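Lecture notes, continued. The same structure-token format from the folding unit now serves as the input rather than the output. Read the line below as a description of shape only.
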């Protein structure tokens, strides 16, 4: 990754993480210009191949986040931020960034839940009750016990920024690259 592209992506990640932490959302005004910047930069510096590289990363970044979004555990700003990250990094880089983002996001969620122990206790109680109902009736029914208590909201933009930055550092060091899983060398 060239220094200009790296600086642009790091700027986008820093702004998105701060915006998400402060306001618990990543607005379109942050993500759409980032996507256009990545498409334009790769298209101008590498021609049609660069644009295809950027579009492939955009598609993968968007695609991997759609399932969590439709499951209701991810916000639309997070999805668009990961798509912008993919537009900068390409498909292989987006895949690496997504895997490390998932790891850091999971750790972040565990820390937040432990900090809000009563919410964690309610979730575990609900799962325990569901398991008991399943053992008795062979039907799985999960009803979370929040009783007026809201679960803590996660600012996943910070996890995306952390996962992407660590992914870029690992890529620079030549370690921990999962991108080759997208294009394996099959024996002919």
């Amino acid at each position: 990754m060239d220094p200009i592209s790296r600086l642009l992506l790091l700027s986008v990640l820093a702004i998105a993480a701060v915006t998400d932490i402060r306001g618990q959302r990543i607005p379109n005004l942050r993500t759409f210009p980032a996507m256009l910047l990545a498409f334009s930069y790769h298209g101008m510096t590498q021609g049609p191949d660069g644009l295809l590289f950027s579009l492939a990363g955009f598609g993968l970044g968007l695609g991997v986040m759609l399932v969590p979004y439709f499951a209701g555990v991810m916000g639309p700003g997070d999805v668009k931020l990961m798509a912008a990250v993919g537009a900068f990094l390409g498909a292989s880089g987006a895949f690496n960034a997504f895997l490390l983002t998932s790891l850091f996001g999971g750790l972040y969620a565990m820390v937040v839940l432990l900090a809000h122990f009563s919410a964690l206790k309610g979730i575990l109680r609900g799962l325990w009750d569901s398991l008991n109902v399943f053992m008795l009736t062979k039907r799985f029914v999960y009803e979370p016990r929040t009783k007026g208590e809201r679960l803590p909201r996660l600012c996943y933009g910070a996890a995306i920024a952390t996962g992407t930055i660590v992914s870029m550092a690992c890529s620079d060091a030549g370690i921990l690259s999962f991108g080759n899983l997208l294009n394996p060398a099959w024996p002919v």
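Point for the exam: The chain has a mean pLDDT of 86.
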